[in-house]
Design brief:
CATH class of the largest domain: Alpha Beta
Mean pLDDT: 91
Number of strands: 19
Largest sheet: 6 strands, mixed
Radius of gyration: 22 Å
CATH superfamily of the largest domain: Response regulator
Helix content: 25-40%
Strand content: 15-25%
Number of helices: 12
Strand order of the largest sheet: 6-7-5-8-9-10
Low-confidence stretches: 1-36
Distance between the termini: 71 Å
Length: 420
């Protein structure tokens, strides 16, 4: 049989068996798989790079792979039980934004591929599907893109998340709008229309905003609370309800495709509100290219911004651009990047590739040079991280500023939204 070369653990090695390409992943039969397992640390990554969530999924994949490159370039992760540093061998699967496929691919990475940990789960729907596999296969799973609290309320022992809870977006949105009222930019008693995706993500957002509103009587009156299905094409019915509600503020919680579609129809219907938000969406380049000046003044509660003043956040943005050839777009890549970094820290602390030992180390791990707001990433008792959100606001000429909290602000908020 003809010999050929493959890339394993950062080195080219000669093999005498054909590599089998399956599902976009290269598998090596017999001794090569054993060699790869012995010489490297196998990490599974399951993210959507096709389908409706392909753009955020690709950005998260790039964040993880940047971290892997940096770790491997530095020699790998020291594993005490092996007596040496081992490089990371990534096995990547594209779930196509299909929750059933996402679950089966996660299972495959944990069982057939024997990955010591799996990262991924972009979006609440995909992350929920993947999360059940973690305890079933006693394999650490870190979702880098699902922040719904329901995932972490089931007592899973091997599930972790690098996104602060979605409910805090709603809470921070209330705090931000409340601060504008306190400054006299907006008036008390604002009528609020809320339209959210029909997922746990949407439920959490409403809960966070409602709790803040209930604790601050007189600031807001919620006059509409509606849900929509993911990947909708026609929002005319719900937008008509928004119009009829005569609300002052329009708040939505939507994933990127729905944000673009809904806001296009919002503009076509001539709607205007004093402040508009689509939850964690707003500053994405794709949306601004699609809708132009129509996205001006939208504000967003996000997990990361390239405007953060931390030196490590600025370096991450520079490294990401050098690695990918494009600027970091919105928040997607940062929690994925830090997810891989905190996993590497836990593997080193565990001193072995034992999955339960890595799980135990993740529970105690702290990434003290995190690029995320607050600069420290760690996991709570339920496995989910919790750190502050920042509010950004789109401004003309593709400018984006952090406008809240005040100590992180790069520019003042514009309120109310100018009526063009």
């Amino acid at each position: 049989m003809r010999k050929s070369q493959i890339f394993v653990g950062g080195h080219f090695r000669r093999i005498t068996a054909l590599a089998i390409l399956l599902g976009g992943i290269t598998f090596f039969p017999g001794s090569m798989r054993a060699l790869a397992a012995d010489d490297t640390i196998t990490i599974g990554v399951v993210l959507p790079t096709t389908g409706s969530e392909s753009k955020p999924g690709q950005y998260q994949k790039e964040g993880i792979e940047l971290a892997i490159k940096q770790i491997n370039d530095a020699g790998g992760i020291m594993v005490k039980s092996k007596g040496k540093k081992l490089k990371i061998n990534e096995i990547f699967y594209d779930d196509g934004t299909d929750s059933k496929k996402s679950a089966s691919l996660t299972e495959r990475a944990m069982s057939s591929d024997n990955a010591v940990a799996v990262l991924g789960g972009y979006s609440t729907a995909l992350g929920t599907a993947e999360s059940v596999m973690a305890d079933r296969y006693k394999t650490p799973w870190i979702t880098t893109g699902a922040g719904a609290t329901a995932i972490f309320g089931k007592g899973y022992q091997y599930a972790f998340g690098t996104l602060s809870p979605v409910a805090l977006i709603g809470t921070t949105t209330g705090e931000f709008l409340g601060s504008l009222i306190d400054q006299g930019k907006l008036k008390k008693g604002l009528k609020v229309a809320i339209v959210v995706e029909n997922t746990d993500h949407g439920v959490d957002y409403v809960q966070g905003f409602t709790e803040w509103s209930n604790k601050h009587a007189g600031y807001f009156e919620i006059v509409l609370n509606e849900k929509f299905e993911l990947n909708a094409t026609d929002f005319s019915g719900v937008l008509q309800k928004v119009k009829t509600s005569k609300a002052d503020i329009f708040l939505s919680d939507a994933h990127l495709p729905d944000y673009i579609t809904m806001h296009r129809q919002y503009l076509q219907n001539g709607l205007h509100h004093q402040m508009v938000s689509y939850g964690a969406r707003g500053p994405e380049a794709g949306a601004r290219q699609a809708l132009g000046a129509g996205t001006d003044y939208i504000f967003s509660g996000i997990w990361w911004s390239n405007k953060l003043p931390y030196p490590q956040a600025k370096k991450f943005a520079e490294d990401y651009k050098a690695f990918t050839g494009h600027d970091v777009d919105s928040w997607y890549a940062a929690p994925a990047y830090d997810g891989m970094r905190i996993l590497a820290k836990a593997i080193e602390a565990a001193g072995s590739l034992d999955k339960t030992a890595i799980r135990d180390a993740l529970k105690k791990a702290q990434l003290k040079d995190s690029v995320l707001p607050g600069q420290v990433l760690k996991f709570g008792a339920n496995g989910q991280s919790e750190y502050p959100f920042v509010i950004t606001q789109n401004k003309p000429d593709n400018k984006v500023d952090i406008v809240f909290p005040k100590d992180a602000a790069t520019g003042p908020p514009v309120a109310p939204t100018p009526n063009k």
